[in-house]
Amino acid sequence: MTPMIRLGKLQLDAPFFQAGLAGYSDTAMRLVARRHGCPYCVTEALLDQFLIQGGRGLKSADLDDGDHPIAGQLMGSHPADIAAGAEILVGMGYDVIDVNLACPVKKIKKKSRGGHLMSVPDEAVAILDAVIQAVGSDVPCTVKLRRGSDDSPGALANFHRIFQATIDLGYAGAVVHGRSVEQKYLGPSNWNFLRALTDQYGGVDDFTIGGSGDVWQASDIFKMIDQTGVDFVSVARGCIGNPWVFTQARALLAGDTQTAATPPTIFQQRDVLLEHFQLSVALHGEQLASRLMRKFGIRFSRHHPRCDEVKKSFIGVMGLPAWKAVLDKFYSKDGPGVGGDAALPEEAGEAESTCPEPQSI
Question: Which residues pair with 209 in a beta bridge?
Fold first, then answer.
């Protein structure tokens, strides 16, 4: 039986979702993920000030009817401002409001946002309180955390204070990344920490615990659930250029190990590349979409048997004709794709940031 995951009144029919990835998880990426079985998505982190000042580009990025359920992720420094940002997202039709207390990027920390708040629990709790007071009971609130600002006992105590406040304030759930803020993306995610967390808080009624970190393949989703006891799993860098991770995860849920182990064919890759590009053009216009899609093409190339050649060709793409030329050259003949460990990106297990200064949905 497929597990049902609850976030307040919202129910998800699978224990995984697409994380918010700054610079990547726009409407186009989310729609592609959903069409491959992703049940729930989170936006890139949105600054409260960006929303309050009118949100440049938000009008053209109105929520697609197929882009639900969705969480609008917020980041900010001041309770009143982030509460105002939450109210704006509720008015726009977001199904969940997610507060980001996790981003480890230095310029975010310097402005007292994101992961910086893990080191100042009074400020973090004030922000969490302000958001849920502004949102009310109709829309569930969640929070994204890291396991602490660093590895010190004080950081651990701060984490537990914030986590307990999240429960006490009535949040529907929390997703915890198994790395510290100081650690950024260097070294392994501490799944033992997640195990201890679920052992301590897993019995809390109406509170869902999610895990994040080192989820690169569909099998990692269920390894994390088995090893840590989390209710559901955030798929972050592992789904960039790999929407099939959700199809494969659905197959594993259904006991279909053959489908789960089958990488996308050349034609399946071509179809998704075209679909993603067209969605991006509709959202951003051809010029901007061409720039944005280069980095996606690089990641999609990992599934092609001629990965290095395809990667170099995508780097040079400057418009839809060039994009189609790459497809004509490398994707015109069907055949098996590359999967498993061979398709993992170079940064698997390495340091990389997917959290630049947030700007748009």
Answer: 174
Residue with tokens 């170099």: 312
Q: How far is 1 from 20, CA to CA, in rounded Å?
A: 28
Q: How far apart, in whole angstroms, are the C-alpha atoms of residue 146 and residue 150? A: 9
Residue keyed to tokens 């390495």 = 350
SS3 call for 158: helix
Burial class of residue 236 in the structure, from the number of CB atoms within 10 Å of its CB (0-12 exposed, 13-18 middle, 19+ buried): buried
CATH 3.20.20.70 fits 5-260, yes or no: yes
Q: Is the peptide bond before 321 cis (omega within 30 degrees of 0)?
A: no
CA dist., res. 246 & res. 18, Å (int): 9
pLDDT in tens, 39-57: 999 999 999 998 998 876 5
Report the 10 Å Cβ neighbour count for 252.
17
Can you give the pLDDT at residue 60?
A: 41
- Spatial separation of the C-alpha atoms in residues 121 and 87, rounded to whole Å: 23
Assign 41 to helix, strand or coil.
strand
Structure tokens at 209: 């615990």
Yes or no: say if 321 and 289 are a contact pair by the CB < 8 Å rule: no
Q: Which residues of the chain have pLDDT under 50?
A: 60-61, 349, 351-361
Write down the pTM of the prediction. 0.92
In terms of C-beta density within 10 A (0-12 exposed, 13-18 middle, 19 or more buried), how is residue 65 classed? exposed
Find residue 212's DSSP bridge partners.
Answer: 177
- In the prediction, which pLDDT does 110 show? 53
pLDDT tens across 325-352, in order?
Answer: 999 999 999 999 999 888 888 777 453 3
85's tokens: 């940002």
Three-state SS at 340: helix
